[in-house]
Amino acid sequence: MAEHDQLTPAQQPELEANGGSPAGGAKTDMPTTYDPKAAEQKWYPYWMEGGFFRAGQRPEAKPYTIVIPPPNVTGMLHIGHALDFTLQDILIRTKRMQGYDTLWLPGTDHAGIATQTKVEQKLRAQNISRYDLGREKFLEQVWAWKDQYAATIHEQWSKMGLSLDYSRERFTLDEGLSKAVREVFVKLYEKGLIYRGKRIINWDPAARTALSDIEVEYKEVNGHLYHLRYPLKDGSGFITVATTRPETMLGDTAVAVHPEDERYKDMIGKTLILPIIGREIPVIADEYVEKEFGSGAVKITPAHDPNDFEVGQRHNLPQIVVMDESGTMNSEAGPYQGQDRSECRKNITADLKEQGVLISIEDHVHQVGHSERSGAVVEPYLSTQWFVAMQPLAEAAIQAQKDGTGVNFVPDRFEKIYLHWIENVRDWCISRQLWWGHRIPAWYSESTGEMVVARDEEEARQISGLSDLKQDEDVLDTWFSSGLWPFSTLGWPDDSEDMKRYYPTDVLVTGYDIIYFWVARMIFTALEFTGEKPFSDVLIHGLVRDAEGRKMSKSLGNGVDPLEVIEKYGADAMRYMISTGSTPGQDLRFRWEKVEQARNFANKIWNASRFALMNLEGVSFEDIDISGKLGTADRWILHRLNETSRDISRLINAYDFGETGRLLYNFIWDDLCDWYIEFAKLSLYGSDEAAKRSTQSVLAYVLDRTMRLIHPFMPYISEEIWQHLPHQGETITLAAWPEYDAALENPDAVAEMNLLMDMIRAVRNIRAEVNVPMSKKVELIVKAGNQETLAIIERNNAYISRFANTSSFEAGLNPEAPEKVMSAVVTGAELLLPLSGLIDIEQEIARLQKEVQTLNSEVERVDKKLGNPGFVAKAPAKVIEEERAKQADYSAKREKVLARIAELRG
């Protein structure tokens, strides 16, 4: 693997002070306890100053690219961001150690409506509106907000230990990205894929802007269904219609029935009188109407319903808008002009009832659209807006998935969700009536009204030959610019070196909640403008929920600040818990006790490493040699390390971080700490110098590789420990990833070690069963199943004697043993522990008889309670069930103790 450039002379003293060196021996001055804050404050500045995260320093290496999903500059990062970014950092750190030229490009999103709403709320608290300031002054306020929160996000990124290449950081309103936005807009317009038209859109009356379909959240609302009677002009009868929004009837321009509905065959073409307003409206026939649903007649309001708009287009109906942009009824609403739409609903209902038009009102639960940003009820609204014609773009994206050249979704079930949406996508409303964002690159002549689309005003003048041009006041939907993120950040539309080297990117990591918002848009724009998919894989993770599985929200007060987690337990503990706590696509429940367990895991790693380093004094990197004669435990731990390295590489490539975490935990806690280090003490404290040197080499080698494996998950503690170990290189971030080595495979050592561990566990289990502490020595007799097993036992008798804590130890194919023994069977051997060496039999019988008396009392008490008719009749079923469970438990325990007494008496 290509090493990083050597440290400058200025950096060298600082690194020495930090406890590390480009190549050196073990440093045994580790503090007794691990201090996460000290490590974080030490190593992140060192990584930054060393430039270790900068891409482009390995020109011969294969590139690996991730562009960060840019967080909105609306506020602080939350725990969901921490999950998203940690998973990316694990991938980047792993690939960097595997020798790739890695680029992890950071950036932030201007977030249009979300950021403008925040700034307007802040100004509103000072009784100032954006209109008081004017566009230019208001935008100064938003830029100041952006600078404040971008700095906060930077600080949070550094606290999380993210290995970002800040030299390439981008913002969606950067000039380079703005150039890309204008280029895409103009090219789509020139192809006829962007157009301006008057259509029904989703309108947010609070923010006073258009919304796209996916910016509308549908919530179940307890409303009403109003049944109304519209009279025929000729007095021959009436037609009954139903609506959930009676205030919109003021904009009705027809009533539609199905052309084959016999009930209305004679009414088609007749005229109705619209109640309240008195406007004459026709009865029309359209197959849109479901004749089996309700009365089979539908009121048509083309300016306030998307389906009605389509019907109106087919029948050339007038489009009457009855409210303004704030949701207030306008002059077309007649007597209700100036009323809020909810107030109008109440008043018009009363008037309809008084006129005998209202037949009935019934309770009705239905889905109502709400603005994702402001929370206001969305109004379907007829408005002149800019749109992207989606079908041609969608078809290319669909074809890519179907012919196998598309994006690989992980888990693959999300591909179906993506395809379903993009196959049914409607034209995208991209204009927003905001001030913060990319201004639409269209200009209008103030004298002629002529419109021209261009990359800038100068180009617009050249194209039109006009000088009195004024730019469109609207801005583009945020997702228009963020949809270009994978390539606009790399310099497109210019033919940049970064674009040539790092595009397409390798993986996008994001939550399932923005597949439609962002993932789909990136795919179809990339295919259209670069001819390639924007990333090979898209890893979809779930949401972070609270311990009860609820979505985190301000209203519930159950949100978690990642900086609070880091403050309490350290960045490594947060990263490990959050990255290994779920499987791809599944939601994660945040539990503080899980973070505490991760902190305890870090402490376990620290304590084990500190013990090892105390026994590696004087050992240099050059001294490490694992090729000589090694003991069973040495060969076994090398095999397990090799096996774990292979499996972790495979699992990270498959994005299975949960299983990776389990393997790391089991290897470090169980294999390395609980078994190998304990076994190593025999050699380290023994008189055999050759065995000691071999064990030191293995211990240094295994700890070094273990720190590398854990580094992507726990970067700080791994760097701190690695710098104390005998090592080569400036930083663990550039150390080579542990690759599988067939030479370290040793199934014989595994079989031997498994036998030894099974024997030691069996002795410990017997001790626990008869309450004999580990401090008390016991006699042990082992009956081996064959000569091979006997040889293994005899070869490792020192380990068995030490960890079983024996006073005497005998092994053979058919050894003599007393009659009264405790026994256990393991694969290949039977273990016998003479009772006389374990316990005083008479004393134990006396103790057990006392236990029987206690259990008799408990059984009698429960029997009496359950035999009481009054208790059984009055007590809750749950309490009775609990008592019956106690009865069974006490009885079973009593039987076991009686059986043990019989066994001891022989």
UniProtKB/TrEMBL annotation:
Kindly list the places in or outside the cell where this protein is found, as annotated in its UniProt entry.
Answer: Cytoplasm
Q: Which residues form a coiled coil?
A: 838-865
One GO term in the molecular function aspect is: valine-tRNA ligase activity
Q: Please indicate if the UniProt record lists ATP-binding as a keyword.
A: yes
Chief subcellular location equals: cytoplasm
UniProt domain Aminoacyl-tRNA synthetase class Ia: residue ranges? 42-590
Q: Which InterPro entries match?
A: aa-tRNA-synth_I_CS (IPR001412), aa-tRNA-synth_Ia (IPR002300), Anticodon_Ia_Val (IPR033705), M/V/L/I-tRNA-synth_anticd-bd (IPR013155), Rossmann-like_a/b/a_fold (IPR014729), tRNA-bd_arm (IPR010978), tRNAsynth_Ia_anticodon-bd (IPR009080), Val-tRNA_synth_C_sf (IPR037118)
Detail which positions bind ATP: K554
Main enzyme class: ligase
The residue numbers the entry assigns to motif 'HIGH' region are 71-81
What does the UniProt keyword field contain? Aminoacyl-tRNA synthetase, ATP-binding, Coiled coil, Cytoplasm, Ligase, Nucleotide-binding, Protein biosynthesis
Motif stretch ('KMSKS' region): 551-555
Q: Where is the Valyl-tRNA synthetase tRNA-binding arm domain?
A: 840-904
Xref: Pfam families: Anticodon_1 (PF08264), tRNA-synt_1 (PF00133), Val_tRNA-synt_C (PF10458)
Assembly description: Monomer.
Role, per record: Catalyzes the attachment of valine to tRNA(Val). As ValRS can inadvertently accommodate and process structurally similar amino acids such as threonine, to avoid such errors, it has a 'posttransfer' editing activity that hydrolyzes mischarged Thr-tRNA(Val) in a tRNA-dependent manner.
Q: What's noted about domains in the record?
A: The C-terminal coiled-coil domain is crucial for aminoacylation activity. ValRS has two distinct active sites: one for aminoacylation and one for editing. The misactivated threonine is translocated from the active site to the editing site.
The protein's name = Valine--tRNA ligase
